[in-house]
Design a protein that fits this description.
This protein is mainly α. The protein contains 5 helices and no strands. One of its GO terms (cellular component) is cytosol. May function in the process of apoptosis. GO terms for molecular function: DNA binding.
Length: 126
């Protein structure tokens, strides 16, 4: 191998290593940002909800994570705009859950497709 070819291979390998290391640091920064956001959400919810309401919300998150996320977003938005007058109790959280449930009602429809099958009564008409 010529020195030029060897140097080109070294440069290529170095570029690959730098790219790989750069991706790892970007992933780490993304994870850190997600963790900070999660911590911020938890601290706001801790300030807004009392213990029984937090327990109910965490139980809801286990069963229906989408609905729990919607309720959390609603509570955080209310807290940011100063619409909450204090800590929300479990009964207050239940009212908020009912509000969110009414806004996100999913209608389920059942449709029957019946196939026509040869029936003996149809043949007896002639």
């Amino acid at each position: 191998m010529a020195d030029e070819e060897l140097e080109a291979i070294r440069r290529q390998r170095m570029a690959e290593l730098q790219a790989k290391h750069g991706d790892a640091s970007n992933n780490q920064q993304g994870e850190e940002a997600k963790q900070r956001e999660k911590d911020m959400r938890n601290s706001i919810l801790a300030q807004v909800l009392d213990q029984s309401a937090r327990a109910r919300l965490s139980n809801l998150a286990l069963v229906k994570p989408e609905k729990a996320n919607a309720v959390e977003n609603y509570l955080i938005q209310m807290a940011r705009f100063g619409q909450l007058g204090g800590k929300i109790s479990e009964s207050g959280l239940i009212e908020i859950l009912e509000k969110v449930s009414q806004q996100t009602v999913k209608t389920t429809t059942v449709k029957f497709n019946r196939q026509k099958v040869m029936d003996s009564d149809d043949e007896d008409d002639y």
